[in-house]
Design goal:
2 copies of one chain form a homodimer. With about 290 residues, chain A is α/β, with parallel strands linked by helices. Chain A has 13 helices and 9 strands. At the A-B interface, strand 9, helix 8, helix 9, helix 10 and helix 11 of A face strand 9, helix 8, helix 9, helix 10 and helix 11 of B. Chains A, B: Belongs to the HIBADH-related family.
């Protein structure tokens, strides 16, 4: 079996360790990052080379992975002048790990097909820690054959990997996740604000209720940092704002009323204007605590 | 050791099996229920006798348990003409399992002390099934000595039993629970409404995301019935309305803004006017699905 050639575009908090796992698995890697110094650093940490553009990185790749910021970044590194589509080989697969719109996923699927290659949208969850430990959840959209072909490679950094349906379905699933998180975290924030104002021992409260009907991953993993007013970790409000904007646009398209999600997106906008764009999403509590009563 | 005498006031969905567990444990039971036929039925199912009034039930009791509907019912069976306080013996303990206000808990604590007896507020969670299986969570408020004295008896139907602080603290903890549930269930409902409108396989979506940051007891235990549009089970909207009204009044008192909880209470009011007072709280999805878009 000949060595697999892969490109990885976007060496951010997530992409950097993800590309690293592929390199460590013996895949011949070519990486690209907008800030070239970071790509150079990556080649000092891992075996592989870096390319001056997405097109150059993708030129000889069997698999091209992307993990960038948003729809605009994604269109630029794929459909732009120096983008991946300029060189993506016939039969190659483009795998997009960006949390983006379902629309751009369908666009890239169509563009890939047009040149005889394949596309998979594959947003992840599990955060920086999941990327470092190789324990990400990966929600895929695309056809079965493409999914099966890429699956063994995804397993180098993914744990729960699922094909959700045709192109765009990975993104739609990630949106469901973010909608559920928004209501959940606000409920937790209101509950904790109440517990503190009521003079309860908040730790004891959550020990007591976290096994029952109010229990959640967020309650188990965030109540302590919320009690400690610590938000310099986790999933940043700026990213949540981006994701919720995507959800709300798609909800208009598919006719879903999201009254509370919409309002929580506004709460996150307030947190941004409080200077909290980099705070964890659980900082909804800090916002509540600033409201004059 | 002489036999423990206990009274149980209120043989509803929860109280009926709870009193049954005490009878089966060998405690000499006297029960009271507003609808006398139900008390008569209870004495056919379990060893024990029934009394014509709360005062009569409590007359010779070491421990008096109450599990009724709301603050008004509770005041009536305790402070009313035929209420427990008429006969509650010096040294006896009054244990209230009603989900009620912290205010009425403090009132009953004061009234109990005045006649040399003791009080514990002890709202439960775990539902009808928890009451039947003896697996309830019990959140207690009161003093340590009273709690330790009652604990072995509570263990006949409770699993996770905790003393949360002074009188009223059990109720306040239950309120935190209900506030967390409200936001959580609306988030889940909005996520599921979106998933269905997006054409996703909703079962597969929840299998995929329930282990991560969006995961919750509600997601695991309610997604299937929500997908099936089944709400004839679980915790009724009428009861949730009552509980959230209590939360919102207490939040005004302790200065906690609960913007989303307040709005979800309004959503539940809408469900009541749709005829859904007996539906499970997860019927927030059905409300979303009725909104014209």
């Amino acid at each position: 079996m000949s060595t697999l050639n892969a490109a990885f575009i976007g060496l951010g908090t997530m992409g950097y360790p993800m590309a690293g796992h592929l390199a460590e698995a013996g895949i011949a890697m070519t990486v690209y990052n907008r800030t070239a110094q970071r790509a150079q650093q990556w080649t000092r940490d891992y075996p592989g080379s870096h390319a001056p553009s997405p097109a150059d990185a993708a030129r000889h790749a069997d698999l091209v992975f992307i993990c960038v910021g948003d729809d605009n970044d994604l269109r630029q590194v794929t459909l732009g002048d120096d983008g991946v589509m300029q060189t993506l080989a016939k039969g190659a697969v483009l795998v997009d790990h960006t949390t983006a719109s379902a629309e751009v996923a369908r666009e890239l699927d169509a563009a890939s097909r047009k040149q005889g290659s394949h596309f998979l949208d594959a947003p992840v969850s599990g955060g920086q820690q999941g990327a470092q430990n190789g324990q990400l959840s990966i929600m895929c959209g695309g056809d079965e054959a493409t999914y099966q072909r890429v699956l063994p490679t995804l397993q180098h950094y993914g744990k729960a990997i699922n094909l959700m349906g045709p192109a765009g379905s990975g993104q739609l699933t990630k949106m469901v996740n973010q909608i559920c998180v928004a209501g959940l975290v606000e409920g937790l924030a209101e509950g904790l604000a109440f517990a503190l104002n009521a003079g309860l021992d908040a730790n004891k409260v959550f020990e007591t209720i976290s096994q029952g009907a109010a229990g959640s991953w967020q309650m188990v993993n965030r109540h302590q940092t919320m009690i400690d007013d610590q938000y310099e970790h986790g999933f940043a409000v700026d990213w949540m704002r981006k994701d919720l904007d995507i959800c709300l646009r798609e909800a208009v398209r598919n006719g879903t009323p999201l009254p509370i999600t919409e309002q929580i997106n506004d709460f996150y906008r307030e947190i941004q204007s409080m200077g909290g764009g980099r705070w964890d999403t659980s900082s909804l509590l800090r916002r509540l605590q600033k409201i004059p009563t």
